[in-house]
Amino acid sequence: MSFDRHVLLSGCSGGGKSTLLAELRRRGFATVEEPGRRIVAQETACGGDALPWIDLGAFARRALALASQDRTRAPQGCWVFFDRGEVDAATALMNAKGIPLDNSLGAKARYHQQVFLTPPWPEIYEYDADRRHGFEEAEAEYQRLTAALHALSYDTILLPRLPVNERADFLLDRLRTSVRTA
To answer: d(Cα 10, Cα 117) in Å, to the nearest integer?
Structure first.
């Protein structure tokens, strides 16, 4: 299977990934919601403990499995945008349990070479019932993700702090350029 059109949106918690994903969906692109938000909803509904503020290791393992399922179920041959994915979950697992990225990710976990990062953006960061960590912790997560993506030889593209429609234009322009030069 080729996942070269599966594009990962990663970066700072509260940096606008979900908003950008909604804009891409509005434009007709296939999108996949963040595994973590879905897990939090499921665990909260059933009184489970696989929540990042209770058991980060269990949460990260579930996120890794769900992200892998998402990739398997996603269409091939067209652009598909993922709000977080296997790399994010493996990075959380490394942070929680010390498990190296190579032990969590296989070759099939590769996304498009360009990964788009939402930078720390305090003006739009919001604490909510599903995001129970502060901005400083979100910044630390961003640093871990940046280091992990670099270690995995991805080209990271920092998304500019612009209105969502301009962010989407920027991302799509970068992808068009990468296709023309490939």
So the answer is: 5
Residue 175 Cα to chain centre, angstroms: 17
Helix (H, G, I), strand (E, B) or coil at 155: strand
Report the top-level CATH class of 6-181: alpha beta
Tokens at 71, concatenated: 């990739």
Kindly list the domain boundaries of the chain, sorted by start residue: 6-181
From residue 10, alpha-carbon distances to 51, 67, 133, 160 in Å are 20, 13, 17, 13
**pLDDT average, residue stretch 106-121:** 85
At 72-91, the pLDDT tens digits run 999 988 999 999 999 999 99
Which position has the token pair 């434009």?
A: 27
Residue 16 — very low, low, confident or very high, per pLDDT cuts 50/70/90?
confident
